[in-house]
Design a protein that fits this description.
The complex is a heterodimer of chains A (275) and B (272). Chain A has 11 helices and no strands. Chain A is an all-alpha fold. The longest helix of chain A has 39 residues. Chain A has a single domain, classed as MetI-like fold, CATH 1.10.3720. Helix content of chain A is 81%, strand content 0%. The relative contact order of chain A is 0.12. The two termini of chain A are 18 Å apart. Chain B is α/β, with parallel strands linked by helices and 272 residues long. Chain B has 2 domains: 179 residues, Rossmann fold; 63 residues, no CATH class. In chain B, 32% of the residues lie in helices and 22% in strands. Chain B contains 7 helices and 10 strands. Chain B is globular, with a radius of gyration of 18 Å. The chains are: A mainly alpha (275), B alpha/beta (272). Chains A and B meet through helix 8 and helix 9 of A and strand 6 and helix 2 of B.
Chain lengths: 275, 272
């Protein structure tokens, strides 16, 4: 049985990663086009005013006409989101390692992390404005605050669920704390870390936009969140939509990047990245 | 100490094992091992049999120094197993292969040497040798996910043997494999033992496996594990597959069967 299956798998022409990505991407893209075209037709047919709901073609035109401004704001937002995400990944893993060192530390700190998680970032942002100043730094910290919890929680789960038999084996050969962390517990946690990163990537973008609403500077190219707010105030609903679209493309790209990283890290050994 | 060996395996002597009045009671007064005593001379192949969950695995962990005795003593080469040094020369094979899925075969087999601080060129060399001994040289760069169950278990065996252990502990290592594969691996293990002179303690559910492989079988009662019978198996050292159909083997199997029945081990032993 097994031999047959192995042979079949070997004999099959595995699609290249590129063509697989295209295969995965085209159904949602088709869906998007279908929705956009339907929306266009309905909005035109019903003569919906543009300040209420601009047609997709109008949004597209705005994206082209205002592309300079949108891109500049995107750069600000992307910087905050990526740095906030990166900090959440690094600090989240370090914090999870700290928590994994002892039951006591875990019991002492975990409730506060859950508390941190449940306090909405909009409530924390004004404090950041008081303590730091409105602007990129505050916004980045907002992204970090929102994104760090799933990193900690997932990494911790992974660190604590390393195979007990392997832990025994490491003990048998006299492996110290550091060796078992590097060679056993962190690699075991890798699938969980990737899961945490997937969640954190989306949250970092959300955290950045919300952070910009509350703690963003109101001048210059202060980010898509700020642009969105300003566009709303002046009745540029088309620009609001354009900013939303650009922000979600940022989220998607970050998510895609994380998925790619996860795939490269896990493809050889983890069932989630195979077949 | 262990690793200062000559390339010729046969010069590595096994160690003696002395279990004296061993008790292990877990929290909540769960007795796993009760007053167990036996001595294993260097180089012996010993099987431990008993009903499922009787405490054999606990005993094996105690021997490896992975768990602490409630009372009594376990000595490996005359030293208490609980405070054996890092390079104690003990290796452990678990019920399943338990490989590191993110490492290929070579790097899995290298791992014990890496943890013991052996330099890369030497450990690569030793790992290659151990992999060759279990017949997996062709699969050296493959990952556990790409191997069959039997191959994975052979990697696990190579990983245990790579340090040239003087005491090899196996906890129902081939229980999850199909019968054909299991027989092949039994024969392979037998060959490895014959060539090495190491002491082997083999926990199994299979009466046939115990009789075929070992020079001696100790039968335990239901939990808590107590020694019911200590059966010598005088079938010589050089054994081959044909022995499985030898009437003398059948006789040994009957003897073990009787002992297990006397210990009330049969109900707990369905998947033997």
């Amino acid at each position: 049985m097994r031999c047959g299956r192995e042979a079949a798998r070997k004999g099959m022409n595995m699609p290249s990663p590129g063509s697989r990505a295209i295969q995965a991407a085209w159904p949602p893209i088709m869906m998007f086009l279908l929705l956009a075209i339907s929306a266009e037709m309905i909005i035109r047919a019903m003569k919906v005013p543009a300040f209420l709901l601009p047609a997709p073609s109008a949004v597209l035109r705005t994206m082209w006409v205002d592309s300079g401004e949108l891109l500049a704001n995107l750069a600000t937002t992307a910087w905050a989101a990526v740095v906030g995400f990166g900090a959440a990944v690094v600090l989240g893993i370090l914090f999870a390692i700290l928590l994994s060192t002892s039951r006591f530390v875990q019991r002492a700190l975990y409730p506060y992390m859950v508390f941190f998680q449940t306090v909405p970032v909009v409530a924390i942002a004004p404090l950041l404005v008081i303590w730091i100043e409105p602007g990129l730094k505050s916004v980045t910290i907002c992204a970090l605050v929102v994104a760090i919890f799933p990193m900690i929680a997932n990494t911790l789960t992974g660190l604590l669920s390393a195979d007990p038999a392997l832990r025994d084996m490491f003990t048998l050969y006299g492996a110290g704390w550091w060796a078992s962390l590097i060679k056993l517990r962190l690699p075991s946690a890798m699938p969980n870390i990737v899961t945490g990163m997937r969640i954190a990537a989306g949250l970092a973008v959300i955290g950045t936009i919300v952070g910009e609403f509350v703690a963003g500077e109101l001048q210059g190219n202060a980010g898509l969140g700020v642009e969105l707010l300003v566009a709303q105030k002046v009745g540029r609903t088309d620009l609001v939509f354009a900013a939303i679209l650009v922000a979600s493309l940022l989220g998607l790209s970050l998510f895609g990047l994380v998925n790619l990283t996860g795939h490269l890290l896990l493809r050889r050994w983890h069932a989630s990245e195979r077949g | 100490m262990v690793l200062q060996q000559s390339p010729d395996n046969s010069t590595i002597a096994g160690v003696s094992l002395d279990v004296t009045g061993a008790y292990r009671t877990f929290d909540g007064n769960v007795k796993a091992v009760e007053d167990v005593s036996f001595s294993v001379p260097p180089g012996q192949f010993l099987s431990l049999l008993g009903p499922s969950g009787c405490g054999k695995s606990t005993l094996l962990r105690l021997i490896a120094g992975l768990d602490h005795l409630t009372a009594g003593s376990i000595q490996v080469a005359g030293r208490p197993s609980a405070d054996l040094p890092k390079r104690s020369g003990i290796a452990f094979v678990f019920q399943d292969a338990h490989l590191l899925p993110w490492r290929n075969v070579l790097r899995n087999v290298e791992l014990p040497l890496e943890l013991l601080g052996i330099g890369r060129p030497q450990r690569r060399e030793l790992a290659r040798q151990a992999i060759e001994e279990v017949g997996l040289s062709d699969a050296i760069t493959r990952y556990p996910l790409q191997l069959s169950g039997g191959m994975r278990m052979r990697v696990s065996l190579a990983r245990a043997l790579v340090t040239r252990p003087r005491l090899l502990l196996l906890d129902e290592p081939f229980a999850a494999l199909d019968e054909m594969t299991r027989h092949r691996l039994d024969e392979q293990l037998l060959g490895l033992w014959q060539n090495s002179g190491m002491t082997v303690v083999f926990v199994t559910h299979s009466i046939l496996e115990a009789a075929f492989l070992s020079q001696r079988a100790i039968v335990f009662s239901r939990r808590p594990a107590r020694v019911i019978a200590d059966i010598p198996i005088n079938l010589g050292r050089d054994r081959a597959a044909e022995l499985r159909t030898d009437p003398r083997l059948l006789h040994v199997m009957q003897e073990i069967q009787h002992a297990l029945r006397a210990g009330g081990g049969e109900e707990g032993d369905e998947h033997a």
